């Protein structure tokens, strides 16, 4: 049994309420993150919905002002407002090019409909998100490749596997980036450039079910996971029994 | 301090580490079982809940039902959904047909998470490191639990929600209040998406 002082009882609700308000102001997200089992995402919001899509509200943009100190941009991130966000952009420190005398950089992520030229290796399954950064009316680019590159996460309209890959528009067409899946339908890539980004379902990738109807178990993870779990429970039981016996003896 | 008491204290001090290790393993098992379904997998969610319930039971997390806990828990749920209502309004995008099964499973998972995080783990950490550490470690574990399922962007808000749930535990002295708040916010959440 733990003893809680009256001061702690008074202090923690205040701290928690402040933290909750701060989190909503600084990093607004949406209700599924409270979950025990994933609340379904709201249907994907398209700028130009396919015929089979449900009627939804319009997709949202994300805006963030990145402070600049001594020419270096600070860490910052921006989420769009859907539940869950259709785009999350993380800018690590020094992610953006030096901006001279500017004290801040304005970064925007805006949904647009796919327009030609389209990717040659597949079909865009999301909106095209245009990421721009400006300081004093001048366009600002990504500073360099490597650890300070921005990280971009995009939510796909569904969890079908193999999933889509992230591509961005270049002068010569769409370029595929190394994409990792970080959530049910969320994909992440390092962004060597701002500009237009989208999730592209590759033409040569066969679709399989992403349902909960069996299969899909990651046995490589499951084996060690269960082994460690059983070990931890056994050690915990033995220790608690010994502690209990020691307490009784004492 | 006697030698016997010192030994007992060392054993108790390891309990939070063992619980955190078991919790990490449970998250790995959940992710592995979910496969491509991710957080939407009810099968994986229920397995995760069962593991956490076993851990809470083994650790003898006390279960107290009181009127005060119920009222505070309901108020906690309201506090958690209020920012969503203010910023997003009522969504109503999801059909009611899938709700009953989802609701039962979600309530089970939320309750098991709280029995473990604000019950077993809280007690173990608080015994050795105090109430404040118990609240903070529980909140960090809560936020970390969601990263493999949703990605890093959920961390700031989940950390704050973990603190709110921890505060409810501090306030009422039982994990049933945060369990009610957590399950309540989840169940209402369906209608807000």
CATH architecture of chain A: Sandwich
What letter string, H or E per element, gives the SSE order of chain A?
HEEEEEEEEEEEEEEH
What's the Cα radius of gyration of chain B?
17 Å
User: Largest sheet of chain B at a glance?
Assistant: none
How many β-strand stretches of chain A? 14
Task: Describe how the helices and strands are arranged.
The complex is a heterodimer of chains A (250) and B (193).
Chain A: H1 6-26, E1 62-69, E2 72-73, E3 76-79, E4 87-91, E5 104-112, E6 122-124, E7 128-135, E8 138-139, E9 151-155, E10 165-170, E11 173-176, E12 180-181, E13 186-190, E14 195-202, H2 219-249
Antiparallel strand pairs in A: 1-2, 1-5, 3-4, 4-9, 5-7, 6-14, 7-8, 7-14, 9-13, 10-11, 10-14, 12-13
Chain B: H1 3-34, H2 42-58, H3 67-88, H4 99-129, H5 131-150, H6 155-172, H7 176-192
Helix pairs in contact in B: 1-2, 1-4, 1-5, 2-4, 3-6, 3-7, 4-5, 4-7, 5-6, 6-7
Structure explained in plain terms:
The complex is a heterodimer of chains A (250) and B (193). By secondary structure, chain A is of the alpha+beta class. Chain A has a single domain, classed as Chondroitinase Ac, Chain A, domain 3 (Sandwich). Chain A is 21% helix and 28% strand. Chain A has helices at 6-26, 219-249; strands spanning 62-69, 72-73, 76-79, 87-91, 104-112, 122-124, 128-135, 138-139, 151-155, 165-170, 173-176, 180-181, 186-190, 195-202. In chain A, strands 1, 2, 5, 6, 7, 8, 10, 11 and 14 form a nine-stranded antiparallel beta sheet that branches. A five-stranded antiparallel beta sheet of chain A has the order 3-4-9-13-12, with no helix packed on it. The longest helix of chain A is centred in the C-terminal third of the chain and has 31 residues, at 219-249. Residues 208-214 of chain A have low confidence and may be disordered. The model of chain B has no long low-confidence stretch (mean pLDDT 84). Chain B has one domain. Chain B has helices at residues 3-34, 42-58, 67-88, 99-129, 131-150, 155-172, 176-192. Chain B contains seven helices and no strands. By secondary structure, chain B is an all-alpha fold. Chain B starts with a helix and ends with a helix. In chain B, α1 (3-34) packs antiparallel against α2 (42-58) and α3 (67-88) runs parallel beside α7. The interface between A and B is large, with 84 and 97 residues.
């Amino acid at each position: 049994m733990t003893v809680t002082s009256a001061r702690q009882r008074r202090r923690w609700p205040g701290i928690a309420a402040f933290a909750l308000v701060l989190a909503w102001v600084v990093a607004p997200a949406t209700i599924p993150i409270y979950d025990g089992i994933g609340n379904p995402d709201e249907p994907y919001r398209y700028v130009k919905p396919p015929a089979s899509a449900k009627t939804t509200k319009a997709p949202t943009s994300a805006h963030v002002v990145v402070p600049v100190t001594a020419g270096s941009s600070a860490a910052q991130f921006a989420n769009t407002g859907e539940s869950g966000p259709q785009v999350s952009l993380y800018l690590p420190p020094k992610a953006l090019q030096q901006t001279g005398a500017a004290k801040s950089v304005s970064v925007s992520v805006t949904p647009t409909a796919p327009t030609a030229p389209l990717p040659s290796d597949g079909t865009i399954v999301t909106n095209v998100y245009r990421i721009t950064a400006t300081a004093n009316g001048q366009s600002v680019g990504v500073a360099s490749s490597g650890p300070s590159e921005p990280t971009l996460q995009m939510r796909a309209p569904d969890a079908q596997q193999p999933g889509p890959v992230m591509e961005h528009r270049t002068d010569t067409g769409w370029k595929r980036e190394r994409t990792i899946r970080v959530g049910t339908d969320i994909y992440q890539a390092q962004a060597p450039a701002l500009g237009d980004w989208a999730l592209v379902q590759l033409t040569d990738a066969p679709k399989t079910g992403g349902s909960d109807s069996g299969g899909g178990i990651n046995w490589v993870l499951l084996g060690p996971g269960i082994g460690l779990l059983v070990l931890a429970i056994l050690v915990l039981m033995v220790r608690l029994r010994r502690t209990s016996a020691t307490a009784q003896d004492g | 301090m006697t030698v016997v008491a010192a030994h007992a204290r060392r054993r108790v001090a390891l309990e939070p580490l063992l619980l955190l290790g078991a919790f990490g393993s449970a998250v790995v098992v959940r992710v592995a079982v979910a496969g491509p379904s991710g957080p939407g997998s009810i099968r994986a969610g229920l397995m995760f809940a069962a593991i956490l319930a076993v851990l809470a039971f083994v650790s003898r997390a006390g279960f107290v039902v009181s009127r005060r806990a119920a009222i505070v828990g309901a108020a906690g749920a309201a506090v958690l959904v209020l920012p969503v209502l203010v910023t997003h309004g009522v969504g109503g995008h999801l059909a009611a047909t899938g709700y009953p099964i989802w609701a039962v499973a979600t309530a089970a998972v939320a309750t098991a998470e709280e029995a473990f995080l604000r019950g077993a783990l809280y007690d173990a950490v608080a015994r050795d490191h105090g109430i404040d550490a118990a609240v903070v470690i529980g909140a960090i574990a809560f936020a970390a639990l969601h990263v493999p399922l949703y990605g890093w962007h959920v961390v700031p808000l989940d950390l704050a929600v973990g603190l709110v749930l921890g505060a409810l535990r501090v306030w009422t002295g039982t994990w049933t209040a945060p369990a009610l708040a957590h399950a309540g916010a989840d169940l209402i959440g369906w209608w807000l998406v």
